[in-house]
Amino acid sequence: MATRDKSSRRFLSEAQSAWLLLTPFLAVYALFLVYPFFRGFWISLHDWNLLAVAFNPDAKEYVGLRNYERVMWGRNIEWGALASPALQIIGVLGVVIAVFFRRMRRMSRTTAIALGVASAMLFLLPGFHPGEGGRWFDRRFWPTVGNTLVFVGLTVPGVTVSALVLAAALNRETRAMAILRTVFFLSQVLSVTVVTLIWQIMFSPRQGLIANITEVFGGSPIVWLTNEQFAMAAIVITTVWWSLGIAMILFLAGLQDISRDLYEAAALDNATGLKAFWYITLPNLQRTITLVIVLQIILHFQVFGQSHLMTNGGPNDTTQVLVRYIYQTAFRDSELGRASAMAVFLFLIMGGFSIIQFLIGREEDR
Amino acid sequence: MKHVLMTAAAAATIATGAFAQEVTLGRFFGACEDAGTDTKSSVGEACIIQSIINAASAEIDGVTVNTLPTDWGNFYDQIKASYAGGTPPDIHVMHRHRIPEFAGLGAIADLSGDLAAAGIDTSDWAPAALDAVSYNGGIYGVPLDFHANLWHVNMDLMEQAGLVENGAPVLPSSPEELLAHAQKVKDATGQDYLAADFAQFPIGVRLVLALMWQQNANIFTDDGTATINNDAAANAVTAMTQLFDAGLANPQLNYADSQQAFLNGESAILVNGTWVVDFYTAEAAKPEVGLNNYYVADFPTLFETGATWADTHMWAIPSTLDGEKKTAALKVLAFINDHNVDWARTGHMAVRNSVLESDEYANLPHRSEYAGTASIARDTPPSERYGAIQDVLNRELQAIWLTGKAVDVALADAEAEVQDLLDR
Questions:
Q1: Do B302 and B416 reside in the same domain of the chain?
Q2: B83, B413, B416: residue with CB nearest A54
Q3: Which residue of A50, B69, B175, B193 has the fewest C-beta atoms within 10 A of its own C-beta?
């Protein structure tokens, strides 16, 4: 009798209740993420004018993969092993390093594969170029991808290193440190419009703080936002300042997980300060560092506001980034199909990094 | 019977709008918090237009106007997205150059049948204004102004350089003279001759376009062939770059910085539109502002034919709007049309003959100084890709003066990209 009572009270199995609890999330996820993604892909297979289709649903035309071709390919595209030597040589070196360290067993399998694949891409992709009388159909797409990569390549190490240094310095239980932690996190709370406004004033050659400081030291102020050499640096600095907070909090959490005993033991072996940081803190933070780096990469590939509001992608397109190009194509030019094709490309890049994170996470779990 | 009468009366009150119709309005021109309803005393584009809108909301029976928050730089993106989402504002401002794009797709309404009933007399519009809002035989909006690039002049700096005659500035009539004048100003005052936004909005593009039109050239033909990589364009560009190379003008200033340079008295000329005349007049009257003696001149002719970039602001109604809402929206348009002279206080040129001929208009500050602008107003041929084409030109021209890209390479790139846009 007793067993029967129990089973009748439990009218849902564990699996059933799990599904029930998951349903709200799955419904929202499917409606706002999965469905739009597949619809986006479907749109990318059409010649789809934003306004025309809004007024006449039949105004779209199925074109297969032509949008992808128009965006990424060109006429008479050739491949050469030394078309852009610098990048391709770095790519070859990357492959060599990956193979070498894997042979020496100095590198884990996943890291070696990730480095190897990334380097191979670096060797392969820049090799494409228009041959005699050829041209890219879209002359701005690949330079824009390049700018986005430069932005990610500068911002991610910038955020990671400065957040790590800050976290290590602020990881003390005094009131002053608690206040400083809050102060450094505060910038994260601001919206992109506020952040870019603050930094536009900072960078202004006429009234900006930076210009005033340079003038005190007798230099002539840099016109940050319209100078080809400094425009990208300016939006990178802004972004690092803006997105330090989350990375710092993650590092602080990681730091607090490291046992005090380790530091005491190290101190007995005369390893304090920098040495302790290098031999104790860094190795124990490895997982957090990986997490922060991958999260930052995925986040910063989606950069838009800084470029759109501070430099309008200029000068000479040097700060034009992928999401801004997608936005312009969709809303300024009304070419939704083409824009969706670029968005799918961006998804593939970010999906690739997510897979890397997944693989690394799984390997370390073992 | 009593019942029937009462129901009918109730229905009638609802139908005639015992409840005020709310009309949503989308516009650029910037934000003005406390514009009030006095259309005669507000200063600057943002506050003048908002005071007219507020007055419409207060004075038209049964209609309230709700101005939507919109940002200038992204206005068209936002408007298009709202059309695509099926929720466009009931009235919105736009440029005449966007008519092919919006009317071509059937987004905005042909108002030719509605204007007379709404009390808008199209025969009072200047012919060029009617032409500006006409497309394929229809009238797609109510014109608000003509606006154009002008030369704003600091007379004190010009005087010191000996470039004032009979109370008017002496302006160049050739690229060579431009350079000579610029050198004179530098020698006499140490200041730059010319400032403009060469680094942000397409003001520099409009300047180069004007210099191309002055040579009877254009950036593309009516049949869609890009014509940018040629001598006319190179002449136009080098007329400017010679000033940058000689250190007589600074290409790195954006809109706000170039304006500030002019108001600080650091530049003899500012190339900017009609929209700032009343603002600069007000600024020049302040003792703490470097600019004291302000003058407005027509864009000078440096080549054969007079020409300056010009456009028209206009108000449009979505084609989907009907019934009471449309009647209410048309009332607001009629109100704005009636206040054309108030909008002209910004410095813009009026569109109604009755205003153009009025003393009130003629007596607006500096109005007589740029009376020639109306006759040299120009724009590119109509295109659905106007915005994208301007962006290409802005990018390539900025590449020339900000990053030192070779003129012929930049012009060739611009021509190829504009051709791509025209072919799409």
A1: yes
A2: B83
A3: B69
